[in-house]
Structures are given as C-alpha cells and as structure tokens.
Amino acid sequence: MGKHKLLYWIVQLVAWGVLCGIIGIAAFVQGELSFRTGLKLMELYLLLIFFSNIIRWAFIKRSWLNLKLASLIPRVVTLSFLLSTLLMLITSLSTVIFYGEGWIPFSEFIINSLLYSLFLIMWSAVYLTYHLLQKSRLQEINNLRLQASQTQNELKALRDQLNPHFLFNSLNSIRALIEIEPTSAKSAITTLSSLLRNSLMLGKKSFISLKEEMLLVEEYLKLEKIRYEERLSYTLNCEPQKSIQIPPFLIQSMVENAIKHGVSKKLKGGEIVVNVYLREQNLIMEVINDGEYNERQNHGIGIKNTKRRLEILYGQEAGFGIKNKENKVYSHIWINKKKLIERSYESNNH
C-alpha cells in the first residue's frame, strides 16, 4: 500500500470514527446509550466509510478531479444527497427488521439525510482540497525540474562554447610561432596537447577544484610564454584551500582576455598576476595585467560567458568587475563562499 493510500485510510477511519464517537457521547449524555445504540453506530460508521468511498471513486474514475468548480459542485452535492438518502433508508430499514422498531418520522428522515449529506459534502471538500494541493505541489516540482533542466542545458552550452573559443586562440598562438620560430612551435604543440586534454576533460564537469583550475591557467600561460617569450611574465598566487570547487574556466577566461586585449597590444608586452584569496565571506579571483580597459571595445564571448554563468549559478551572490588603475587592468570575480559550497554540494548530489 502506497504512502498516500495509507494516509487516506487512516484519515478515513479516524474522521468517521470521531463523528460516530461524538454521536455516541451525545447519546450517553441523554441516557440513551445501549448495546443496540452501539450496533447502530457501528452500522452508521461502516456505511459512511462505504459511501464516502463511492464519492472517491467518482472523483478518480469519473475524472471529477479535472472538472471546474462550476461543474463539480452540483455533482458532489447531488451525489452526496442521494447517498445520504440511501444511508437513511438502509439504517431505517435495519431498525425495523432487526430491532423491531417503527419507521422514523418523515421530517426526521429528511433532516438526517440533509445532515449526512452535509458531512459527505464536507468530506468531499477536504478530499478535493488535498488533491488540489498535491497537484499544485507536483506542478511546482515539475516546473522547478524543467527550469533546472533548462538552466543545466544553458550552462552546458556556455561551457561548450569555451572549448572551441579556447582552441581557436591557442591555435592562433602556434600558427604565429610556426612562421617565426618553428622549434618553439614544436614545444608549443606538446604543451597545447596537454592543455587541450585537460581542458576537454574539465569542460565536461560542472565544478572543478581550484587546484585543477590553477593548473589549467598555468599550462595556458606556459603556452603563451612560448609565443611571447620575454614580452610576457606571470605570477600565480593562490591562498585558499585548493580543494574549493568552482565552475571551470573562470580564471582561465580572465587570463585569456588579459593577454588578448592587454599584453598582446603592448609593444613591450607586460605582466599577468593572478591572485586568489578570501575576503570576508567571499572568494576573490583577480587577474591584473598591463594595459588599458576600453568599455566600448568588444571583449569576445569569454567575459560575456563568464557573467552569464555566474548569474545562472549564483544570482546576486556573485559578480564580475573590471577597471583601470595605474596603467593596469584589474578584472575580478567574487563568489559568496557559502553559496559556492552550497552549489557545488548540490551538483555533486545530483
């Protein structure tokens, strides 16, 4: 027996039991409680259970649960009155046949029929309310699942965008080397092979460790170092535990942007500094590069991609910023540490 069916029968037995118990107490107070009264109450109890199940059958088998209230209410009222009238006929007939009593007055018959029909209508209202709440809850769950699925699909699409973009830029670096320095190009191809293998593997994950991200960044900078030689220098600083889970390519995208729109534009090149640290309740990932940030300049899909991923995953609990300061460009991502842990935990448990 399912959980919902078990709950139904528990409520069914208890509710009608309480009603018959109240009638029994009233009979006791009036001094009319006897063995015969007990038998009549048992008969009433069983009939109420049976007839309320008929209403339940109508709700399920006749699809009353799908009807609008304007169509449902007349059906429930009519069926409840018919069943309560039948209930009174059965109890009155059994009183005459088994207990040798006379027929109850017609007015009492009608009043009791209306009273029991009211109880059955109330039962129907409770049953309907429960199912409407269940339906609403299931609809909400389905909507959340659909929304989550759409979000995951968008995140996957955003991650999938990064690999071709990343590969294209890396191949451009090697192409430039082949024309200038073929020997260095061979070394770059080896580095690129390792870099692509790691990036493809990490790109399939929703979250990776900070250590994995920093290794990816280091490999990428080694590749660019082969291309730019003395024009590029870099420093990597990572204070927090490297087991912290973050979305892949967050830091790498900022570094790639810093080289493409910063260092590569300067004749003498420049320096890339990557700082990862905790400030108050936030994880900060910062990239500093020589150059100047121009808001009107197109910075490609990398930064747009990063902003959108942060928005989907963390909402208002994360953000991206970029500014000029003392002939350098400061770009940074901040993520609330608590939210960061929550999201990575949710991902690992789905």
Automatic annotation (TrEMBL):
It holds the Pfam family His_kinase. Coiled coil: none annotated. Keywords: Membrane, Transmembrane, Transmembrane helix. InterPro entries: Bact_2-comp_sensor_kinase, HATPase_C_sf, Sig_transdc_His_kin_internal. The keyword Transmembrane helix applies. The chain crosses the membrane at residues 7-29, 41-60, 72-97, 109-130. Signal peptide: none annotated. One of its GO terms (molecular function) is phosphorelay sensor kinase activity. Residues 154-232 form the Signal transduction histidine kinase internal region domain. One of its GO terms (cellular component) is membrane. PANTHER family: SENSOR HISTIDINE KINASE YPDA. This is Signal transduction histidine kinase internal region domain-containing protein. It comes from Brumimicrobium oceani. The lineage of its organism: Bacteria, Pseudomonadati, Bacteroidota, Flavobacteriia, Flavobacteriales.
